[in-house]
Specification:
By secondary structure, the chain is α+β, with helices and mostly antiparallel strands. It has 2 domains: 2-79, Glutaredoxin (3-Layer(aba) Sandwich); 86-192, Up-down Bundle (Glutathione S-transferase Yfyf (Class Pi), Chain A, domain 2). 56% of the residues lie in helices and 8% in strands. It has helices at residues 10-22, 41-46, 65-75, 86-116, 124-145, 157-166, 180-190, 193-199, and strands at 2-5, 27-30, 54-57, 60-63. A 4-stranded mixed beta sheet has the order 2-1-3-4, with helices on one face. A hairpin with a 2-residue loop joins strand 3 (54-57) and strand 4 (60-63). Helix 1 runs parallel beside helix 3 and helix 4 packs antiparallel against helix 5 (124-145). The chain is globular. The two termini are 22 Å apart. The mean pLDDT is 96.
Length: 200
């Protein structure tokens, strides 16, 4: 199994944490986003979107990090990171989809318009709007996590999907101390061996 990705990418790290949690053997094949390797013909033959990561498992070529999470849990149900009932499936999917559609894109906008783009291309209004949307997602997480350890009945793909989006919150001036349950939940996730191996 090979994961083509950029080691600093939250999306790549999401897939790497999942691979570690499942305990499967894999090789990380670096894709240098800084030099534009993701735009090359060779990489686009694997992933026509030119994004990372891309998982290659035999004749399967799979991109989109959440899809990789779903594939790994289906292949290794004994690890218990996927749903065990229809209700559980809905709960895990709720948070994965919220992250993909709302939280992650708005965190990316904050990053782009405060750090990545040159100052003359940054749009403060987009940052302000993105912060409002991030707070909506954090508020929903806070409500769900009140009195709970995990988003579903146990540590699951919901955590693996969301946590890499929030790891750089301090750098982006996203104050998780306003969401104490989310802050404690992130502490539980970042203490896991899989997380420490990828992020340390």
């Amino acid at each position: 199994m090979k994961l083509h990705g950029f080691s600093m990418s939250p999306n790549t790290r999401r897939a790497l944490v999942a691979l570690e949690e499942h305990g499967v053997a894999y090789e990380l094949v670096p894709v240098d986003l800084m030099s534009g390797e993701q735009k090359t013909e060779a990489y686009r033959a694997l992933n026509p979107t030119g994004r990372v990561p891309t998982l290659v498992d035999g004749d399967l070529i799979l991109w989109e990090s959440n899809a990789i999470l779903e594939y790994l849990t289906a292949a290794h149900p004994e690890k218990g990171l996927g749903p065990v009932s229809p209700r559980d499936a809905g709960e895990i999917a709720r948070w994965m989809f919220m992250n993909a559609a709302h939280l992650s894109p708005n965190v990316a906008r904050i990053f782009a318009h405060t750090i990545r783009l040159p100052p003359e291309k940054r749009l403060p209004q987009l940052v302000d709007e993105a912060r409002v949307e991030v707070d909506k997602s954090l508020g929903a997480l806070e409500k769900r996590l009140a009195g709970r350890t995990w988003l579903a009945e146990r540590f699951s793909n919901a955590e693996i999907s969301i946590a890499p989006t929030l790891v750089n919150a301090p750098m982006l001036q996203i104050d998780l101390s306003r969401f104490l349950a989310v802050q404690a939940w992130m502490g539980r996730i970042t203490g896991r061996p899989s997380w420490k191996k990828i992020y340390d």
